[in-house]
Amino acid sequence: MNTFKINSSNAADLSSFLKSNKTWQKYIAFADSQTKNRMLWFLVAFVFQAVVFLPIPAALMYYYNASVVTLAITVLLFFGFLVVGMTGFGIRTLILYTAFSFAVNLTMLAIYIL
Question: Which sequence ranges are marked TM in the entry (predicted)?
Answer without folding.
Answer: 39-56, 62-82, 94-113
